[in-house]
Each structure stands twice: as C-alpha cells, then as structure tokens.
C-alpha cells in the first residue's frame, strides 16, 4: 500500500493533465455514442491499454450546483445509479479529499461490482469549475469487490456565455476496471455509463 501523496503537488499535476486533455484537437477523437443528452468520443489512452473517453453535453443549471452534484459529497449517492457507496477517508485543504466508493455490477453482471479509492480535487477553471480525480493504491481491498483504477479523470463545467443558467459539462474518463473482462464489454459499458450519467444528472438537478 502506498503512503498518501502530497495533496498540493498531486492536485497541481492532476489539473495540468486535465487541462492538457481539454486541449486535444477534435480530429483525434472518434464518436463512440450519441444521445439527446450527450455525445461520447474516445481515443487510445496514454496511460493504459484502454481508451480515454470524452463526454460533453449542455446541462440546464449553474456550474456550482452541477459540480456539487458530481464531486464527493452528499448529493452524488442520491442520483448516480452506478455508485452504491461512498466514504470520505481523508480531507485536505483546497477542496481535496480521498474517497472510497463502490459501483454496481453492469452488463448483466458480466462486469462485477468494483471498488475505487480516488484522490479528488475541485478548483476554478476559466469562468467555471474543474472537478478531477485519480485512483490511489491505498487501503485494503474489501471482499467481494475487484479494485478498479481511474487514471486521470475530470469534469469541466463552464457557464454558456449567452445563457449563463446553462453550463457546458465536459468529462474525461479513463477507467481500468481490471479483473478478467473482455475489452469489448468494457467499451460498451463505458459509453452507456457516460450518456446515462448525463440523463441521471439532469433529472437530479430538476428535483
């Protein structure tokens, strides 16, 4: 088990990585799935043998409220159908924490429940917010779960200039589910999970 990293240094490195992803040219992405709520693209990840996914859609609300529903906190478990538990293990200054959470089985349980331990950081970005995270090798893996690993991930939430009560939400996700899984099942699950994330989030914000 690794010791906890320096939170300020890890937060800075994580933010820089996500800003770099946010600058990747449109031509490098390939559309993976499109719904009325969001479009999902993907490209080979630089971090592992799977894909870096980009998801984007307009959400009707202000950036602060949207990010409050996404980052670790009381809202996330209420609406995110994939997340089954969440505990904050450590809290640092500067909107940093370490959280442990579990996810439900997917694709008729071809993908069994997973556990993740992530460092999470939320900061301002342009006129909006960036909430980002990365998995840590920290704590004992609980029985009945496979420990997954999130390579640098994050959500940019920027108010639309001509309509400030709507925000453009752009996510970058690269999750290594680990365990014995066919890659095609993982890819199918990721695209559907990301479009469902937008539709579930929109419903939650309207309640």
Automatic annotation (TrEMBL):
Q: Which gene encodes it?
A: Stard4
Q: Name one GO molecular function term.
A: cholesterol transfer activity
* Alphabetical GO biological process terms: cholesterol import; cholesterol transport involved in cholesterol storage; intracellular cholesterol transport
Looking at the record, the residues that make up the START domain are 10-207
What does the entry list under GO cellular component? cytosol; endoplasmic reticulum
This chain belongs to which protein, by name?
STAR4 protein
Under the heading InterPro entries, the entry gives: StarD4, START-like_dom_sf, START_lipid-bd_dom
Q: Which PANTHER family does the entry mention? A: STAR-RELATED LIPID TRANSFER PROTEIN 4 (PTHR47006:SF1)
Gene3D superfamilies reported for this sequence: 3.30.530.20
């Amino acid at each position: 088990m690794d010791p906890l990293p320096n939170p300020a240094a890890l937060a800075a490195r994580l933010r820089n990585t996500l800003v770099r992803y946010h600058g990747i040219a449109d031509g490098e992405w390939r559309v993976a799935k499109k719904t009325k709520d969001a479009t999902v693209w993907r490209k080979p990840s630089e971090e592992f043998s799977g894909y870096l996914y980009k998801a984007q859609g307009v959400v009707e609300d202000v950036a602060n409220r949207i990010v409050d529903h996404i980052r670790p906190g009381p809202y996330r478990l209420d609406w995110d159908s994939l997340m089954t538990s969440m505990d904050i293990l450590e809290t640092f200054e500067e909107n940093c924490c370490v959280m442990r959470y579990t996810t439900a089985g997917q694709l008729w349980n071809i993908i069994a429940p997973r556990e993740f331990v992530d460092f999470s950081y939320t900061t301002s970005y342009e006129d909006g917010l960036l909430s980002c995270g990365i998995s840590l090798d920290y704590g004992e893996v609980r029985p009945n779960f496979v420990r997954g690993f999130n390579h640098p991930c994050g959500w940019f939430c920027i108010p639309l200039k001509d309509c400030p009560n709507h925000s453009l939400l752009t996510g970058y996700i690269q999750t290594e589910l680990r365990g014995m899984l066919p890659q095609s099942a993982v890819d199918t699950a990721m695209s559907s999970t990301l479009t469902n994330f937008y539709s579930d989030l929109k419903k939650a914000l309207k309640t």
